[in-house]
Amino acid sequence: xxxxxxxxxxxxxxEHKDGEQIYFSLSEDGLHWKDLNGGxxxxxxxxxxxxARDPFIIRxxxxxxxxxxxxxxxxxxxxGWDVAQHGGSRDILIWESKDLVNWEGPRAVTVGVxxxxxxxxxxxxxxKEKEMYMIFFASMxxxxxxxxxxxxxxxxxxxxxxLYTESDNHIIDSTIISTKEGYYRYTKDETTKKIKxxxxxxxxxxSFKLIDSKTLGEMEGVxxxxxxxxxxxxxxxxxxxxxxxxxxxxxxxxxxLSSGKFRVLDESEFDLGENKKRHGGIMTITKDEYDALKKxxxxxx
Length: 301
What we know:
CATH class: Mainly Beta
Structural class: mainly beta
Strand content: 35-45%
CATH superfamily: Glycosyl hydrolase domain, family 43
Number of strands: 20
Largest sheet: 4 strands, antiparallel
Number of helices: 3
Order of helices and strands: EEEEEHEEEEEEEEEEHEEEEEH
Distance between the termini: 32 Å
Radius of gyration: 18 Å
CATH architecture: 5 Propeller
Number of domains: 1
């Protein structure tokens, strides 16, 4: 793959008019962001619940295609969180593109198991052993939030959904990053309202072991963890959505994921742009991809 140059952030902005749609932001350093398309949604869902939250973007292994998946949910419509958890959509929304600018979709795919109350915050990682994409998400079943998964080769057909991981507590918002040593997984404990960190040699749940993280243990009222590696150095950035304070994302950095230690950045060290950044996904991009997306920035002036 060509040298990586910048970063694309896909996200939603909140429970207001058009807030639960998909917004794009662009960055050269991963810490200072510019909103694309004049700060308006780039993609809108007009199907299902007519909202798209928690978007996540992935580049195809062959680098010829991109997919965005999202939660089919619009809280602004007034249904409330109890109904959203226990009587919500069992679908994920899928968009597809060959150039990051022109998108087809959305289309809805039912991945929630029968009786599931919701399908929240779907994410994707490529499983090298299975040679398939693993889609994982939270669902309320038997009055508890757990993480489920399904596999797909090309986002057209999907394996039967199965339980991926559960805890004594409710858990939602899992994200996974692949590294040389294995996989790091970050998940929101919905009971304690904290993020837990785990490491596994492979993607099977039995492989993951808890990492003791003082940084994350001291942080409450956060969700939507996302993690990426900086393009120009051996350092990682974990961001968490400070939903309880209504402040949007907060970045923290580390050069040793196994340590569980992060340096939380001061407000002066990052700029997330005009729009509030709520739960979303960050993808590293090449110069060509950056330049193509930058045209959406020009349109916003």
